[in-house]
Amino acid sequence: MVIPFTNKKTLLSLRKSKTTTKKAPEVSVVGGDEGYRLFVEGVKEYAMIMLDMKGYVIGWNIGAENLLGYKEKAIVGKHFSRLFTQEDRKADKPKLELEQALETGRGEDENWLVRRDKSQFWASGMSTPLRDKAGNLLGFAKIIRDLSERKELEQQKDDFISMASHELKTPLTSIKLYAQLLHKHLEQIKEEKGLSHLTKIQEQITKQENLIRDLLNVSKIQSGMADYQVQEFNLDSLVKDTAKELEATAPTHIIVVVGKTSHKVRAIKEHIGQVLTNFLTNAIKYSPEAKKINVRLSEDKKSVTVSVEDFGMGIPKEQKKRVFDRFYRSENVKTKSLSGYGLGLYIASQIIKQYKGQIKVESIEGKGSIFSFSLPHAKQK
Amino acid sequence: MSKARKKIMIADDDSAIVDVLTLILEDAGYIVESTDDGRTIKDIKEDCPDLILLDIWMVGFDGRVICKYLKGNEPTKDIPLIMISANKDIKEIAMKAGADDFIAKPFDRQDLLAKVAQLIK
Description:
The complex is a heterodimer.
Chain A: E1 11-15, E2 26-30, H1 34-42, E3 46-52, E4 57-60, H2 62-68, H3 72-75, H4 86-90, H5 93-104, E5 107-114, E6 120-131, E7 137-146, H6 148-188, H7 192-216, H8 218-224, E8 230-233, H9 235-249, E9 254-258, E10 265-268, H10 269-285, E11 292-299, E12 303-309, H11 331-335, H12 344-354, E13 358-364, E14 368-376
Parallel strand pairs in A: 9-11
Antiparallel strand pairs in A: 1-2, 3-4, 3-7, 5-6, 6-7, 8-10, 11-12, 12-14, 13-14
Chain B: E1 7-11, H1 15-27, E2 31-35, H2 38-42, E3 51-55, E4 57-58, E5 61-62, H3 63-72, E6 81-85, H4 90-97, E7 101-104, H5 109-119
Parallel strand pairs in B: 1-2, 1-3, 3-6, 6-7
Antiparallel strand pairs in B: 4-5
């Protein structure tokens, strides 16, 4: 039985059972159900596949065509197991999925699926048995969604956590070990006052240690984020406040803020503050001979931009692209033995990307750099 | 420590960690050598250390690869190796790479000395 979704004469319609909601949906083959045809065809983001009782494809919508690369003609009549990876086929996953659907009313899972061109994507799929009014099995409906993007984001998050973990714990380890060595030494020479101070330091180290452990617990990072709220705000005051704060800690430089914006942005304010602090501390750190830093606020039809200009050592042309990479430190910075992990700009770029903004750098070696970020206007609801 | 002094090699690219580990281990009577270059540790041929402390995350080098190499090659395969890492999965990583033991950052001086003493017998 081949029932292409596009064939008006033999369209499928699904109706919920009138007797019980738990029962699988009934299927009847009706002609001219234009609304349903348009519905199935119109769904472009989800692959909707109809299988017969044995798992052979009998229906295939445009979403399935887009996602899996097979035209309806090319796949109808073929077994759906070809969408699985070789590994999953060996493990009998296609069969198990249909069995689970029969047993529980639906089979749901996330796995790698294979497109016609053999490329793979991470998919979320759900299979539901389809029965006629008498309860006889007619086949299965399978709906598939591409989750590659989410999978990639999860990977990025994991990478970030493992990097943060390393960066926070390494200095803490040396502090802790030096303190323990010092403790041993002070005990030997019976330096009571020093010991009492050191004990206080060690208590604080333990506190810090616990804090970092909690912070790195993924679930806690997520729930912790609840304390910060995404909000709509004007960047001008945040920029001015951050500039004032940093000016106070670096009396060597004057930070001049010019321009203003009228559009609000939508973000967690602390995140954007972190990016600004990073730009400004870098500007101060890498322009030890200069006295002035310029900050400009501007906007166009779509976005709001903040740029931070310093008159320092600048970045060699060939290294400009890499400054936002994790752990990357420009060669001229390394040779001047300025401290840093090469993390600040990486984190800044991750933050700006998260809000669908752009982060940029312009620089002339020996003259200075302009770091800027743009954020889209907050949409009025 | 009156018996013949044992030699420990530290491979880590964090200078503060190398410095403090050296102080602790020398204080405990060991001879300490260190490197921040993953390549040199692979080249150990003669005058082998009695134990290696290896950080799994050195810029440009993967400690897991270095560990597998050391454990798979003749002059170094029997040298006890302790992996150091801040990674929460360090136990699994160390086992897979063939390390003899692991120690998770941030660790205590006493824990480190106990693990070293146990393996260096």
